[in-house]
Amino acid sequence: MTLYFGSDHAGRELKGILLSHAKEKGISVVDLGTDADLSVDYPDYAQKVGDAVVGAPGSYGVLVCGTGIGMSIAANKIHGIRAALLYNEETARLAHQHNNANIVVFGGREVPPKEATSWLDAFLSSTFEGGRHGRRIEKIARIEQEHR
Ligand code: RB5
Q1: Which of 12, 38, 107, 111 has the fewest beta carbons under 10 Å from its own?
Q2: Active site (annotated) includes residue 98
């Protein structure tokens, strides 16, 4: 399993912390930028990570911008992406168990790094429960098909 990371300038610091944390746990990580403090546009990084995740089934993405909102909106435009903006440990778990999210999103200006790393752990250690949640994910996929 590979984790693809992306951020804009506002999320760069937290992205680095989350990436190092995942690497220390022995997870294969790929940093798709940004790697400088220069102001950049978050949709460019949402697209890079979204495309990477869709192209590598079984992989996951981590996106960070200032609030997490722009990255969420942009990533969810990509067919096959289910990006979840996390706001506590419970939503991190449920994003996997109920929504089968393949990208998790953080607000780099909103979340203390220690909390963000524990939310990432909670997401990664959970699994999709299927059943009625599978039916709902299929309905989301149907909406995508109808809006191609
Ligand atoms: C950048 O200033 C900021 O707008 C961006 O990081 C993000 O919060 C957008 O949703």
Answers
A1: 38
A2: yes
Distance between Cα 36 and ligand 1 center (Å) = 15
Please work out whether the CB of residue 65 comes within 6 Å of at least one atom of ligand 1. yes
The closest residue, in CA terms, to atom 3 on ligand 1 is: 66
Map out the domains of the chain as residue ranges: 2-146
For the domain with range 2-146, which CATH number is right: 3.40.50.2300, 3.40.50.300, 3.40.1400.10, 3.40.1390.10?
3.40.1400.10
* Edge-first strand listing for the sheet containing 60-65: 28-31, 2-7, 60-65, 103-107, 83-85
Pairing, β 83-85 against β 60-65: unpaired
Question: Mind listing the pLDDT tens digit for each residue in 80-102?
Answer: 999 999 999 999 999 999 999 99
